[in-house]
């Protein structure tokens, strides 16, 4: 974009003055023969006509050069025409330098993109393929003939189509490569420049293998620990020392610790099983019955120390896996009972969600959780307070189990908590998981 400069106006005034001087000199050269021959006006008319013809010829030649898209040679400055040609020449030089810089930047970008181990695919507004680097070609099986083709027409995996239907807001994990199904891919879609998108593809095969090795190791170790723990716990139950003997305290503590290790092993097995599943069996889950079960379990665990209430304004059921949903909800209820001081209040609420779905909330009047801990609560073995968690008998895996159960139901876990005002854990389910309630066992 050009800017005005005072020197430009000065140059044009000088060029105009020079052109007038040249025209005056030319007409004067024709005027003298006209005076000698006694034909002043015909001589001036002839000189003016030739001057106009010469100017039109020069303007036509300049226009022809511009139309042919040829670069102008550096013109000689002089007159208005010379100044216009010089200005066009300088603009062409600026555009050439600018184009050269852009070309170098584009070449550097492509060189860098081609060197990336991750695949990069540039997509148009309708997900048409505009460009891709060699890594994307290898991972997705793309070739030059695929340019301009709609990407979903090439990647026909149902998992990929569902991801796009959900808006592709989060990355897509563990997609089989169309070129080599044994390779597992991680995809992320990034919006840029309006409606254009950038698809990032990463090979996570080794990471998935390591994750599978970790899951297998945890599952195998947990299975191996289950039998000796059962034996130890069984023998400890058989030992009944007298109430006044020195062994009564140690044996009671060993029983508590063996029970805690058994719960830990069971939670590890549950978590390993959930991580190894892509989906769960779907069936109608009677929420009225499940809420009544959660209330009984909470009252048993509380032993009358808390005020526990169930509220069910949603009046609907869920579509999902009943056993896994019960496990997730029971973990939230157990946490609320464990961490709420005696005399506190716990509310289990099943209500409509403003987004069109439904949510189950477990709200307590406990000590609350500081903001810096909330994002890490669903990590395995993460504890806000290690001493308090061990004192209450928690394994540190409950919220990790809740997160995986909800992920398999396309749901999410929302946590609202502040120190001193309690906590509210909400399982938010999408609208497609909501179904009409068939019956109410309380009626």
What does this structure look like?
- The chain has 443 residues and is of the alpha+beta class.
- 53% of the residues lie in helices and 17% in strands.
- It has helices spanning 6-37, 40-67, 79-115, 134-140, 151-154, 158-165, 205-238, 248-275, 287-302, 322-339, 371-374, 386-392, 398-408, and strands at residues 119-123, 129-132, 172-176, 184-192, 196-203, 283-285, 307-311, 316-320, 345-352, 358-364, 412-417, 423-429, 434-436.
- It has a five-stranded antiparallel beta sheet with strand order 2-1-5-4-3, sandwiched between helices. A five-stranded mixed beta sheet has the order 7-9-10-12-11, with helices on one face. A three-stranded antiparallel beta sheet has the order 6-8-13.
- Helix 10 (322-339) packs antiparallel against helix 13.
- The relative contact order is 0.06.
